[in-house]
């Protein structure tokens, strides 16, 4: 198996030209044609699934031997994990749209059912981002830093990778401080300020 960029794929494909057979006819999994109509949400859901697997792997490693090894992470996983996976799996459930979605594209029922379906993908996205963030934060708490500017890089793949390049400035900016209005944690300080 070779991982390739889309450009590499299409370059290889063009070189084969007329050698590639063309198939025509029925689309066997006809009930699933809706997934093509929602490529954005399909992409989001696949990314969410990968993040949840990463969060599960990190949490499992960090809590090996019992949840008491990291009670905070254990609580976060217990509270949100099932809901996150439920949303990801319900998006993957094969039905798309209302029974009138073809003949009534602008019907209220069509729009309503689409929003109910898409909601699974977007909630799964939010929850998977949060759980992966929490698992990475738990890992960062147990990794010793040599220097204040050290950056923790996690490879969730089962093989070694070399990562090089410029780190984006927004990654290097500290977040979650009292004056950071972009982090969700700042709200707690405003409700119960320290004396």
Write the layout of secondary structure elements.
Layout: H1 6-16, H2 39-62, H3 71-92, H4 108-142, H5 169-172, H6 186-191
Helix pairs in contact: 2-3, 2-4, 3-4
In short:
With 195 residues, this protein is mostly helical. It contains six helices and no strands.
What does this structure look like?
The protein is mostly helical and 195 residues long. The protein has a domain of 105 residues. Helices cover 52% and strands 0% of the residues. Helix 2 runs parallel beside helix 4 and helix 3 runs antiparallel to helix 4. The chain is extended and about 60 Å long. The C terminus is likely disordered.
Number of helices: 6
Shape: extended
Which structural class do you get from the secondary structure elements?
mainly alpha
Tell me the radius of gyration.
Answer: 22 Å
Biggest sheet layout:
none
Report the end-to-end length measured between terminal Cα atoms: 60 Å
Strand content: under 5%
Helix content: 40-55%
Secondary structure: number of strands = 0
**Helix/strand order, N-terminal first:** HHHHHH
Low-confidence stretches: 185-195
What is the arithmetic mean of pLDDT?
A: 84
Feature tags:
extended, 195 residues, disordered C terminus
